[in-house]
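Tutorial, part two.
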Amino acid sequence: MKVAALQMRSGTDIGRNIETFEAMVREAAAAGAVYVQSPEMTGALMRDRAALRASIRPAAEDLVGARASALAAELGIHVHVGSTAVARPDGKVANHAFLFGPDGGLIAEYDKIHMFDVDLDNGESWRESATYEPGRETVVAELPSANLGMSICYDLRFPQLFRAQAVAGAQILTVPAAFTRQTGEAHWHVLLRARAIENGAWLVAAAQGGRHEDGRETYGHSMIVDPWGRIVAEADHDEPAVVVAEIDPAASAAARAKVPNLKNAREFEVRTIAAAPQAERRAG
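Running the prediction step on this input gives:
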């Protein structure tokens, strides 16, 4: 099966972002992709919380989701909106992903679990929890050709999430993201490859890239990684791009047979031992 990761540079205009998204989905489908993933915050990247809240809708009415559903049905493919901001019934905001099938029907939804609350060396400070309500469950979607685990961006730093998906049968892991330039340069490649290797799974990561209208900079480098940790396709830059690769879900089973760490894992306890002061050790 061919899969695609869309590298976008979403701005603050949702309508314009949707037009870009549609053009890229069509390009991916024309290249033969039957599964297409867009990055985190496909709909819009905006720091102004009031403007964000004023622009969003409930998931059932979301404009990005509606266009993705229509495209999936028209093109006969799976379309995965990596995420977009949606209004929750309780008045809060969710960083929300959609996965639509070839009939346009909604297969799965996922709310980002781990909030990006960090203070970086260059003065960047982010408090995602000030705007978004975290999700509380991980999702594995059973597709005709493979099982697919869903995550969003900062989730990448929590390996237990992906291990749980792999144990549940996921052969493809997904990490749509808007990694900052600083953290991306330091950790993006190694973390994606590690998640693929330790779970014997394919990994598809569509990313935002470049300088955005709201002033932030994202790293780009959307990529597709095989279960042995090899990068089989990458946008080696931060410009908009469509990354396509042919993958074989059976390669996941082959990797897990070679290194069966999922089966070999054991439960254990952590015991902390306090060392005696040096003088006391000498006396003893």
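Residues 2-259 form a domain with the Nitrilase/N-carbamoyl-D-aminoacid amidohydrolase fold (CATH 3.60.110.10). In part three we will examine how such features are distributed along the chain.
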